[in-house]
Amino acid sequence: MNHVRKYLAVTMLVLVSILTSGCASTLPVLSASSTAFNLGTMVYQSIENAKILIRTSDGVTKEYLRNIKSIAVFIGQESRIEPCGRIGNVEAVFGDNLGMQLARKGFRVYDANDIEAVDEKPRIRTDYHTEEMLRISTLLGAQAIISGRVVAGKTSSVLGIRKQKTVVHSASLTLTEIDPRRTLMTIDIGYKNGQRPYVAAEGLAMIIQAKLDNPDAAIQELLKKERDASPNSLRGIFGQWHHPGEFPVSVVGGNHS
What domains can be seen in the chain, in order of their start residue? Predict the structure, then answer.
């Protein structure tokens, strides 16, 4: 018995050492596995537990925002290292999922493929300047631009030793009108716990839809009403939800985020 106890003690020390090493440079957090939660619950909680600051420019009316139906998404770029392409850049994965979720909510979305198709010298590995975004969006026929930045890091699962996932800690988005050129809205969100890119994107797509429908809407109050009405669904206030069993949206190029 003594030998068994010593073996177990040594094993536990090794596990603790593995879980706590090699993570200092990636904004690490330690969290339980999220597989027990369905996607709807995860998206709902990502917003409910987040710090959200939304600013709408003076003079922008509810009727005006409701007329915005087409948006160009300029978020993320291609990775130069493995995995290469947009799948290797967390901002790109987030941006592509955000665009797809907005499209599902009825918006005409111009994504990275559309941008590359009309740009003579596409900046696939560097950010676009504001003037470039305006020029390209005008060629595409978009009414507005969504741009922004994402702060991400790594999380380790307690149940999966050294199984790390990329998570979004915060995001800052700007909605810019093209003609006339002006900032319509800014959204800053910070998550209590890091969120997978597709979960963060789904939540922000719901926020954008709600604020474009009514700039005076209080997001947390809408969430409470939706929770009280149907705890396990996000239908109604925030638009149509996924069909049962549907997998999170894929990133540009067909890979899942």
Answer: 30-229 (3.30.160)
